[in-house]
Structures
1.
Amino acid sequence: MKGKKVVSLVIAGAMTAAMLAGCGSSAGSGASNDVKSTSAGSTASAGNGSVEEFNLYATGSDNVRAIFETLTDDFNNNSEYAGKYKCNLTFMLSGTGAASMTDGLVAAYKANQKDSGYDLVDLSGDDLSKVVSQIGEDAFVKLDKSKIPNASGVSAKSSVATDYVQPYRGTTVVLAYDSDKVTDVPKTWDDLTNWIKANPGRFAYNQPGTGGAGDSFARTSVYNYLPEEAFTSDDPSWEDKWDDGFNYLKDIHSSMYKSGGAVVYPAKNQGTLDLLNQGEIDMCPNWADMVLSQRKSGQIKDSIKITQITDKPLTGSLQSLAIPTFGAHQDAAYAFIDYMLSEQAQQTMVTEMAAIPLIDTSKLDMSGFEDLENLDTSNFRIQSIGDLSTDFNERWDNEIATLG
Amino acid sequence: MSKAAKQKIVAYAMVLPAFLIVMLTVAYPIVNSIILSFQDEKTGKFTFANYTYFFTTPNQLKNILYTLFVVIVTVVLAIVIAYLLALYLRFNHSRIAKCIGNLYLLPRFVPAMCAVYAMITIIRDSGLINRIGAAFGQDWKLGLMYHASGLIVMNLWFNIPFATMMIAAGLGAIPDSIIEAARDVGAGRMKVFRAMILPLSVKDVIIAATFVYMSNVGSFTTPYLMGGNAPKMLGIALFDQFNKYLDYNRSAALSVIMFLLCAVSAVVYIRTNLKDKEWEG
Amino acid sequence: MNEPERKVKLQIVDMAKKYPNGDGVEHINLDIYEGEIVTLLGPSGCGKTTILRAIGGFHDITSGDILISGKSIAGLPPEKRPTAMVFQSYNLWPHMTIYENLSYGLKLRKIPKAEIDKDIKNILQLVSMPGCEKKYPNQLSGGQQQRIAIARSLLLKPELLLLDEPFSALDAKIRQQMREELKKIQSDLGITVVFVTHDQEEAMSLSHRIVVMNKGVIAQVGTPTEIYDHPKDRYVASFIGEMNFIDIDNQTIAVRPENLSLDPQAKGDLKATVRTIMVLGHYVQVTVQHGDTVLKSFVDREISNQLNVGDTVSLEIGTHHVFAKE
């Protein structure tokens, strides 16, 4: 009897511990990202001491990981730099909170590390603004364009730390629509508003905070009422001027997609895209690359097309590479940047992820991705509101999500 | 050194790694969370504000009540259905029962994400059921997606096999002769159930219920993919606090609140397990 | 024992019960008289428990009929049958006190509480376990639990008490004691009992009549002495008591050890060699080798004193049975 009690206690204790661990781990999920270190390509001569190895840090979703593995492998084995440099990829899967790579970068800078291992980093527009706001653009090497010959034809520029980072691909949020259902495709923001109200229940955007498409739509909606400069500012005083924009979101709320009698904002970019593909809605904001690559692979219907608002376009983002001053192997890093702007790498990014190429598209095979050619990367509408985004999401959750 | 002392050292040495891991990965984060939950976000001073926020803000309070609603409905339905299924498996010896007995655990082996997506393709308003309806000229819109009822359906899918397994194990431990002896003295099927099977299996039922309850209080995947925007399950509310609003103090407070909600059933579990009734000896 | 005026309590008419795998019993015809203890005896798998469970209603039967006091009970569920069953083990409901165990069936019959209390007191006296009402089954020994199980069955005043190897899980000494008590209770109450066992000694000591079962059919029915003295076939002869089988010409002679004498002078024709001599108190067991077979003989000390291992003796066959050679 005593033995049984002890066993029960131990089991109960273990259970409590497991439960606590469960609660704890969900609280800590943001900090413990899924870190996957991939040493891409191992050809480069075990005995050859002349191969210079360097580390590349990148983050993103799983399809981005696949691309990076393909590209680093190609760089190490097939490119003009093969045998000379070897890229070791450290990829951090996003989706449970994208803070970690940038956090690590900031921490390494603040710790005054010299050879921190951050030889080259891949940064989205948002991440870049975040990092620059915390450690300044001087944390990165001012790029010597002569070491990146392939960049000569690239017109796209990062709005933040312009001289310190090299954009190599772009993507933008667009309107995805079912061309079988939508005949009067909206061209301006007013067209879009009218279309939404004329077709109640046929439009959806995903919850801000669960995917960039919804973020872009909700923020663009709000910042359309603010001066353009506000869109790239993290000054908290702009928050006071959000009211008109939120009123607009409230106004269109009742015309959004409904399920079970209530308006629903699906989670994640894929959530709205699935609804569109299933025919439950006819239009939604989404990432151009996501829509096109899924259309190419047959995951979604061929009738789904993309368009961009011309007067107040949905926001896009340039993906850039930057060389932290606290890393090493600068020449190798330059070589990789140059490689990423080669026709070969750009073609891979177009074909595999429907990225918007930054070099002259006439040199690339754009079949199947003709839609991309109309998206002008040189005047991308960039948003970077920094920490204001958390307040924005919280306000949206409290004011819009609860409307029912 | 005496043999007993040596054995003791070996025993402690064997327990030590597990103990250290638990301390490091469980105890430390918990203590950390609790401290964090009582600190002001900016000043770091002691405050109850992180807790009062969740109990006074209408939206957050709704989240807590919504979570309890979903979880309790899930527990009640899962246990009732699992009990009926376990009774069927225990007392029906047909080939169908045998077949179900072999298959009912299968859902446990389907990864949660796959299961949720599979369920979505079936129950969504444009899903399989809708298409079947369309074949008969009907337009069935179930309205399960983004709604508590959809979450509960999905939770049942996950929890019924598990609860059935636990209850079936309990029922399997009741010898046939106990039931036959009751039939023999004149008890019909219902009376046998009420007087014999129920009291002899109630412990397993309670334990199954506590497990179902606990695994659902903090559920994330299902409400993330199938839940509506508001109110939210606490798992999602925590995700928001942590990942969207980056408010780590409130996140810690919510973690502690969720832990306390879980603790209710842990207490029930421990009491059920420790309270040796006189007859269990 | 079989006087014609005795009333038939249980009648089994050409009953068959077949399991899906082909096992089971068939052509079971049996009359059991009021106030009788009848034992179904046989090795495991012979179908004795199948018959008992069919009487109790725990099996439906494939064909035939079962009647109690002339009325068919074949279609009734256990709770509607005037029978009471005691199982091999786990009879008592572990979550109920002894009082609750005993009173449960009576309460279902809506008997007033005062009467229940009185009955329980009396029955506990009868099974020599007064004052244990408040205990739980796990606080009793195995033997005590079976007494309570019998008491619980008796309380319902069944027309027929069915016992399925109720003592087999008990140790030898308690088993002996329980048999005696069961026999006493049975004769006090005059109740009809069907008892299943694989233990021939138990069957011999307890029963008015024994039904020897073999592979799903009845091999022989008779009083213990009838079965011992006049086994119908070689199977029954071998199953009940000890028996030597000697093949002579085309016949098998079956002779019990006490009826097989040894002649130390070896004057007879059937010669054998002494293998072992074992003194078992007032008699001696001697095994001898005759051809390929080893035979057992009980002799008195006077004879055994003249024997040594390896001696040649001759066999003298007393009372015996002759079966066709197999």
2.
Amino acid sequence: MRTRKLLGIVLLILGLVLLVATAASASPRAQKGGTLVMEETDDVDYIDPQLSYYGETWKLEQSTACKLMNWPDKAGADGTVVTPEVAAGLPVISKDGKTYTFTIKPGFKFSNGKPVNAKSFVDAINRFANPKMQSTGVAFLDIIKGASDVVNGKASSVSGLKASGNKFIVTLTKAAPDFLARLTMPFFQAIDPTLAGQIDANGINQYASCGPYYFSARTPNRSITLKRNPFYKMGRTANVDAIQVNIGNPQPVEYQNVLQGTSDYAAGGIPATEWKNVSAKFGLNKGQVQVHPLLDIRYLALNHGRPLFKDNPQLAKAVNWTVDRQAFAAQGGYLYGQRATQILPPGMLGFKRQGIYPLAVTPGTLAVAKKLAAGNTRDGNAILWAANAGVAPLQAQLIQYNLSQIGLNVQVKLLPRAQQFTDAGNPKTNNYDLTLEHWGADYADPYDFVNILLDGAQVTQPQHNNYAYYDVAKFNTAMRAASLLVGAARGTAYAALDANMMKQNPPWAPLVFSNDRNFLSARFSCVTINEAAAQGPLLNMACLK
Amino acid sequence: MFQYFVRRFLWAIFLFVSVTMITYVLFFLVPADPARLIAGKSATAADVARVRHDYKLDRPVYEQYWRFFDQLVIHQSLGRSFANRRSVNEMVGQAAPVTAGLVAGGAILWMLIALPVGILSALRPRSLLDRGAMIFVLVGISAPVVWIGLLLQYFIGFRLAWTPNAGYCDVFNPPAGATCGGPWDWFYHMILPWLTFAILFAASYARMIRANVMDVLGEDYVRTARAKGVPEQQVIRRHVLRNALLPVVTMLGLDIGVALGGAIFTESIFNLPGLGRLAVNSVFNLDLPTIQGVVVFATLAIILFNLIVDVLYAYIDPRIRLA
């Protein structure tokens, strides 16, 4: 009996020891709570919702804002469908496509406890349009009836907005199938009455938000702090207690901090030469290194307004056959992006892999390029503009070499980035034949790529984004027609436009669809990437091991 | 003395106006449009025109400069940043103490290094100490500040983790959201920046002090003092150092004045939110008011320190009288 009791006790102790040992050796599990620390190389412009226009600010606002329509917190294709958030469902749209009626879902609250209602959105748009705010995004209001009058100081409120009970009604100046996508921009998020009354072009640094988090503190050029919204109970995840953004560390320091574990996310990037090392060390998209395609393109705009490329489709095609996209991408480091030979990026509605031009340069492709260029190089001289910082000068040299092979003598002119796009967009100062450009989607709709960048109506404006000075009547008509379509038809029309422009008379030589490269700490978990919503991992979904 | 101060004051005004005017004109020679930058990439022509009007960028350059000068002198305002619309007074006011802390600490450190190294090298020429010191001088002067800073940051801050690799902590009143603050955190975070900042100056000052001391050691009055039986320590202290360090005082004042304009490299490497980093960011953003703000502060600092040096020199050297 004594022996049995003794055996029992020994077994019990052994069992307990084994249990403790197992628990200790188990890998740490992701849990709620903690503070996520992220780094940014440069400060954001504003955190004021009607003023902020940087991608980095929008990344934070994806966690703080509640919007009528939003991108769901999902990765992949599921995340690219515009989905009602504060709206109870899709709006009721009038037959002429100009009036949208939204029903506001009850339950959303700001971080100060006040409820979100239809007026919250009326206030947001009125504040956005208020000329005293001097918002730089007011161009997106052009389709809302009465907005231009407010922007120009002729009215005090936007006539095309109405809040009636739990209904929010918007009247547009014309049918705009991309309107729902526009509403996903942070400019249109709900704001509380206090913020509605704060009209300050310098921006407000503390205000109540209705998303899973709110901005609890901001010291310009130093730090931003987000905390969990205590009144948010509407289904979106908010794992960490707080998100601390430290601003100003250069990339090597961000890299060191994430490696050491003192930061969780190098949002400002790491040195280009380290991407290959970290990918080899930690693996790709398995944890610490996350690389996903962006709705973004780097391209060589061919100036169709100047003699070299004007009415010269053969030369434009020759350029597309000769540029070395592989070498171009290599300048940006490992996994810089996907080589591009078309306008719309993967993931964008209307993207369809066209395969019109080669991704790699071979003797065969060069021969085709030379044949197309023969007799079409005009005086044989060209001016290429590029930014004077980062990898752009190297990329410009590469293009210069590529084009020399088809008989073009290219003079490279390096400019400060700000000056480059300012002068390129001005018909009086566009003294270039080619310019190396970069465009990222404001919202995930092909209108923002095709119409904004290639509609010929722009080229006579004092400032515009059509750096190719592309003005082809049949394509202008097709672009405007495509912008009025919805759903699959819209995608098909834009895909056809993309293919036809590139086949018949290329406005650009597309080069790279940029990747979003993210380096995360070992404890960063619950990684969800939705490039339509924001660059990088969705911060509200993040958790810490 | 009064006449001297009046002359210096008038000269300072002239210098100040010239520097700010040249900066203003140079900015407008850069062919870029700040209104377009402020209005954003999706702005229409009307938006850009409205911004240009709001910021008075459609006025002639001389009128814009006069407005800036009037604002500065009458209202003591440097205007608002084009990039983020913050008050430039506030931005410069927040950045200046950071740079001042870097420069002050760096100056103390470089003198603590340069003085003993320079003096001992001069007193023991061609000794092992002297040769070692000159190697330090050579490396310190030749090596780029950026390289030194990055090395220190990588090895001491990152690999050994003896100090933070970057970042700044406020001594008093850390801002909301700050993860550190207080005298010890501030000091701890400034060790590597001070070292980086000080090395170049320490090397050049050590060399200068060595040369000056060796010069003075050969003077007649030093030989006379020794011949009279004055103890060597007293000779060094009372006769040699006092004369040898006069030029050092001048250089120190000038270097501190210039450095207060912004230790750009050090601040950029270690993420110190000082005037240097402010200047770099505002240049990249074509943010004229902020550029002007930093220029105004730097100009005033240089003028002030020049004046202090001149007065101090007259005080230290009785042979000098301010005419």
